[in-house]
Amino acid sequence: MSTLAALNATSPATALTKEELERYSRHLILPEVGVEGQLKLKNARVLLVGAGGLGAPLALYLSAAGVGTLGLVDFDVVERSNLQRQVIHGTGDIGRKKIESAAASIAAINPNVRVVRHELALSSENALDIIKNYEIVADGTDNFPTRYLVNDACVLLGKPNVYGSIFRFEGQASVFAAVDAPCYRCLYPEPPPPGLVPSCAEGGVLGILPGIIGLIQATEVVKLILGLGESLQGRLLLYDALAMRFRELKLRKDPDCPICGTHRTITKLIDYNQFCGVPQASATPATVAGEIDPVAVKARLDSGEDFQLIDVREPQEYQICNIPQARLIPLGELPKRLHELDRSRPVVVHCKTGGRSAKAADLLRQNGFTGVLNMTGGILAWSDKVDPAVPKY
């Protein structure tokens, strides 16, 4: 019998063990919770999409609170750069699958919690089959295609979607897709153009921030299970860590929303990478015109070839690591500093992973520069292929 089949065959618990009565005693003496409420938590099934920054506090606190079944969706491995904010993982977990590390931490906190592992990327092909087995979904993802996928799957299945997102020093949270409440598409009908919104890997994030937003999500999950209080349905909670200020926006259900509106046009899951304009990786990547491998860049430098190597990252990134021969001109400053570059000499641009430098290369070409090449993989690829002494971040 599969894990999910066994899960669905499990009868609801009707009592708490002596150990559970002791463990949850501070819940049990709350009149709003009591034994009845704790049994609701014990019988609840919650799916956590992502075991990273937001998924870490969600998993830790929901397991401590006694949520009986936690499904984890993740296919990534723990990296050193995760440890600044993903507190469910430790230094000894580096290189370990996040889903294994998270499950071990949950078991250490509360062995009564059943963890169902979904070691995969959530997709249009599997989302409905996975989500249908849970009562509530908590979205801890960091990309737009998966956010729209989770939203649409929750609307189609009638499941509440406890949403959170973080960036730099700001975060937001809400509860979408519940009955008569707006969904994620009501707030964001269209995704931003690809590359317009930097990822946390590009823009950074205060390590404490996902703890705050993830705990807000965990609070909303527990409230939904217990049927207590006023949820964030129809409200978007905004948090500014630097100002230590919360704001709230009222959200309205869009009658023309294509997934939850009066005349819905989306009746099944779609291709969300295509919807968000994310280019699909080729099974056999070819060398792209206008690109250059870091090894080839190193060969040009060693041979003394005359070209301009431009680093378009931010100054704080340059301080972490850099290629000594590279000149720093952040992407945001490049349009007004074009006059500093020699149009008669070839240009190679690089960033952290290649995305921002691709934009820089396009900008240079549009402004009449020739012989412009983008270093594929950025300085992280330089560290892998050329100089392992260059630290990664």
Essential attributes:
2 domains, eight-stranded mixed beta sheet, 13 strands, elongated, alpha/beta, Oxidized Rhodanese, domain 1, 34% helix, 393 residues
Can you offer a commentary on this structure?
With 393 residues, the chain is α/β, with parallel strands linked by helices. The chain has two domains: 3-275, 3-Layer(aba) Sandwich (Rossmann fold), CATH 3.40.50.720; 291-385, Oxidized Rhodanese, domain 1 (3-Layer(aba) Sandwich), CATH 3.40.250. 34% of the residues lie in helices and 16% in strands. The strands form two sheets. An eight-stranded mixed beta sheet has the order 3-2-1-4-5-6-7-8, sandwiched between helices. A five-stranded parallel beta sheet has the order 9-13-12-10-11. Helix 5 runs parallel beside helix 6 and helix 5 (55-65) crosses helix 11 (209-226). Mean pLDDT is 93; it is low at 281-287.
